[in-house]
Structures are given as C-alpha cells and as structure tokens.
Amino acid sequence: MEAKDGMLEKYAADISSIREAHMRIKSFIHRTPILSSESLDAICGRRLYFKCECFQKGWPVVRDLVDDVITVEDNEIIEAMRLCYAILKVVVEPSGAIGLAAVLSQRFKNNPSWQDCKHIGIVLSGGNVDLGVLWDSFRK
C-alpha cells in the first residue's frame, strides 16, 4: 500500500495477502448458518439474524496454516484489560484482551517475524466482567 509520503508501508495483512490466504484455506471453509429466533425478535421488537461463527470448523485451518502461537500469562491479560479501561475507556473480559496482551508481550516484540509489522488489528471483545473482581485484579 502506498503511503501519503510515497513510501511503501508494511501491514500485517493487506488485501492481496488476504486473498492469497483465502485461496490456501478455501477447501477448509465451512459456511456457517444464519439463525433467527421469533422469541428474541419479540423481545427486541425487530427481526434479528445471528451469524454463528462459533460453528466454523477452524481446527484444520489452525493446524495446517498457523505458523506460531503466543501464550500469555494471567498477569499480562489483566494488564491488557487495565490498559483497555485506562486508555480506551473500554471494559473487556479476560478472553477479549488476549490479543492486546499478546502484542504487548516480549515474546511478540522479540519475534523477528513481526518486527516489520507497523499496523496490527486487534479484536477486543466481551464486556461480561464482574467489576468488583476486575478492580481487585487491578490492585494486585
């Protein structure tokens, strides 16, 4: 992708690499259903549609195409949650902060495969947090 100053920028994933990845995993893709519920429609007063990615058959993709995995410790996840709250003003549950915890980890920073990545997308998710437990974990 061309930068405004004319220099080439590096991204963790650009559209051509996404298309290439799609071609590599095409045979593993499982189209997930879209579900609906009249009961939930009635509660919400509108028609709802749920795209259930949890039905994706992802293990073969991970097994065959993931090059590396970073694990993080509980204290790193708690710190990522704290930073989300303190800086972004977003409350996330522990599983929703793992991506940020991974990128903040020394294992990520010291991995030569990612040293040139200047743009990284991180999905933050889940606000299902007991605030009392959250505050206690920040104090530790």
Description:
The chain has 140 residues and is mainly α. The protein folds into two domains: 15-65, no CATH class; 74-139, no CATH class. 43% of the residues lie in helices and 3% in strands. The protein has seven helices and two strands; from the N terminus they run αβαβααααα. A two-stranded antiparallel sheet has the order 1-2. The radius of gyration is 19 Å and the shape is flat. It starts with 14 loop residues before the first helix and ends with a helix. The mean pLDDT is 76.
Classify the secondary structure makeup into a structural class. mainly alpha
Widest beta sheet: strand line-up: 1-2
Largest sheet: 2 strands, antiparallel
Helix content: 40-55%
Number of helices: 7
Sequence of secondary-structure elements: HEHEHHHHH
Question: What is the total number of structural domains?
Answer: 2
Average pLDDT metric: 76
How much of the sequence lies in strands comes to under 5%
Tell me, what's the shape? flat
Cα end-to-end separation: 43 Å
Low-confidence stretches: none
